[in-house]
Amino acid sequence: MAACDFANFYLLSSKNTLFALGLRPAYYKAQNSDFAHECAQCHTLYAPFMQTSDKHEKIMTSPKNHFGDDASIDDKTNEKILEFLRQN
Questions:
Q1: Angle of helix 75-87 versus helix 33-40 axis, rounded to 10
Q2: Which of 13, 33, 72, 81 is such that its CA lies 20 to 30 A from the CA of 62?
């Protein structure tokens, strides 16, 4: 079996590590447009599971010092994004 054929077989195999982790595409714009819009304005849109809930709480409760930048948004939008982050 050629290396390319083996790679294709592995990638499509149910034993592929990525499939085993249950990873699937995420469409954050459809799931929460505020999260997608506000967060992607200034940086890469990171998947919510890449941070812990307490880290999300800390980030969203102090938006004036968001890694050295002022990422302030209105309270309603902030709460909507924070709730999305908590759930995901």
A1: 110
A2: 33
Please give the Cα distance from 86 to 70 (Å, whole number): 22
The secondary structure of residue 17, as a DSSP letter, is H
Residue 7 phi, psi dihedral angles, 5° rounding:
-60, -45
Spatial separation of the C-alpha atoms in residues 80 and 88, rounded to whole Å:
13
Q: Which two tokens stand for residue 84?
A: 């999305």
**φ, ψ for residue 66 (rounded to 5)?**
-90, 85
26: tokens are: 């995420």
- Residue range 24-74, pLDDT digits in tens: 667 888 899 999 999 998 888 888 988 999 999 998 998 888 888 899 999
